[in-house]
């Protein structure tokens, strides 16, 4: 399941940008190995932020390294039925993000990726 919404967000430098929010649901089953490299987000140079919701009964590991997220190598662990908003220092991360459940279970991870489309001035000129 995925859906898209478009928002106008004002950047810190007072310029406005058109931001698109892509919402994607990744499902996994208890038969899946917890050692699999499961992709949460592809590398995206236009990403300006993201949020993750763990819709499962177990915690999940999330990794910014692009490697398999596991107990030896992870950036964050998100608890069961919890949402995580990365700290400001991570919001501009544009690389690949992977995830894995801490232990086998059925569940899903919902991720909202915010992507800068264009500056507000460009959008207004194109709309006229």
Give the uncertain stretches in residue-range form: 123-128
* Count of alpha/pi helices: 2
Alpha-beta classification:
mainly beta
Tell me the strand order in the biggest sheet: 1-2-9-4-7
Outline, from the CA principal axes? elongated
**Strand segment count:** 9
**What's the N-to-C terminus distance?**
34 Å
Task: Give a structural overview.
This protein is mainly β and 128 residues long. It is 9% helix and 49% strand. The chain is built from two helices and nine strands. The strands form two sheets. The protein has a five-stranded antiparallel sheet. Strand 1 and strand 2 form a beta hairpin. The chain starts with a strand and ends with a helix.
